[in-house]
Design a protein that fits this description.
Layout lengths: L2 H13 L2 H8 L3 H15 L4 E4 L2 E4 L1 H31 L1 E7 L1 H4 L2 H12 L3 E7 L2 H9 L5 E7 L10 E15 L14 H6 L2 E3 L5 H12 L6 E4 L3 H9 L5 E4 L9 E5 L6 E8 L7 H17 L10 E3 L3
Parallel strand pairs: 3-4, 3-5, 7-8
Antiparallel strand pairs: 1-2, 5-11, 6-9, 6-10, 6-11, 6-12
């Protein structure tokens, strides 16, 4: 007994006709007749009453039919599960992320993903949110982790975007030097503008959001260093060259930095997983997306180091 014989038997039972069953199975009618005859011979019973122009199940055929259907279903389930397992043993995921997320959330996610699925090859594209959206739309990425600053408007041109974290912006300064914001629970925009800052390039979404907030308040910032990328800005702040406005997650596990929240609640950003809905996700891509949500949930757990400044976005 084999699956082809059972499949042929079930199709003949459903159509009550050998020729129509053969057409639906895309096999020759004599071939299907031989398969069923062989199955009957192996089982030692007749499965069909054969009369001119009509085929009907015998009592044995009626008993076998639900068993055959269950066996074919089990075989398909086994095939699907093995295919999924193979999909997580090898393959590729193309993930885009912003520079700030690559140094925080992405690093955490990829470390766990590699431990769980070491055979999956991950390609990283590190760009700003606008460039990542373009790459996603062009089909160059499977997933993109993008950020939306509340003050800069919603990201556009993404077919599906799932928010996973809401993250406040914070001000970091050197822990080895006097606190420039001593006595303040949160840093006001006026106090921030009066303190020498390390600022990012003008095309940074983060820089755009902070500049817009200062402009609305009719404030001009004191700039100490301009044009630094994230890693450099953090190191400059550690050395006391100025303060920097950064996402909360970036400042975690940096004992050389002092962290203070901003008083303006609009200075926050939403981290989202974006993908094209017209591209079917691979098993590996779906697993990576699920892990991103899992890590985001952990970061937002009350009582953890980041939970005061990071919260889970309700799905």
């Amino acid at each position: 007994m084999n699956l082809e014989q059972l499949r042929g038997f079930v199709e003949v039972a459903q159509t009550s006709h050998f020729t129509r069953a053969a057409e639906r199975l895309h096999v020759a009618q004599p071939t299907l007749s031989r398969q069923v005859a062989t199955l009957e011979s192996e089982l030692g019973v007749d499965l069909f009453h054969r009369t001119r122009g009509n085929v009907a199940l015998t009592a044995a055929g009626e008993r076998l039919l639900p068993l055959a259907r269950r066996m074919l279903t089990d075989a398909e389930t086994a095939r699907s599960e093995m295919a999924e397992l193979a999909g997580l043993q090898r393959g590729r995921v193309r993930l885009g992320a912003t520079p700030t997320l690559c140094t925080s959330l992405v690093a955490e996610v990829l470390a766990e993903f590699h431990e769980r699925h070491p055979g999956i090859h991950i390609e990283i594209l590190e760009r700003g949110s606008r460039s990542l959206i373009e790459a996603l739309v062009d089909g160059a990425l499977d997933l993109a982790l993008i950020v939306t600053s509340v003050s800069s408007g919603a990201a556009r041109a993404v077919l599906e975007r799932e928010p996973v974290l809401s993250e406040r912006l914070v001000v970091v300064s050197s822990a080895a030097q006097p606190d420039p914001f001593a006595g303040q629970d949160a840093v006001t925009l006026r106090r921030l503008a009066a303190t020498p800052q390390i600022v990012f390039p003008e095309n940074y979404d983060l820089r755009v959001a902070v500049d817009a907030a200062l402009a609305r308040a009719e404030l001009t910032p004191a700039i100490a260093v301009e044009g630094a990328e994230m890693d450099a800005a953090l190191r400059f702040a550690e050395r006391g060259l100025g303060v920097a406005v950064v996402p909360a997650m970036v400042a975690v596990d940096r004992p050389a930095l002092r962290v203070a929240p901003l008083a303006d609640p609009s200075l926050a950003r939403t981290v989202s997983v974006a993908r094209r809905t017209d591209m079917a996700p691979t098993h590996a891509g779906a697993a990576l997306r699920a892990l991103i949500r899992e890590v985001a949930d952990r970061l937002a757990v009350p009582g953890t180091e980041t939970s005061r400044l990071v919260s889970r976005v309700a799905g």
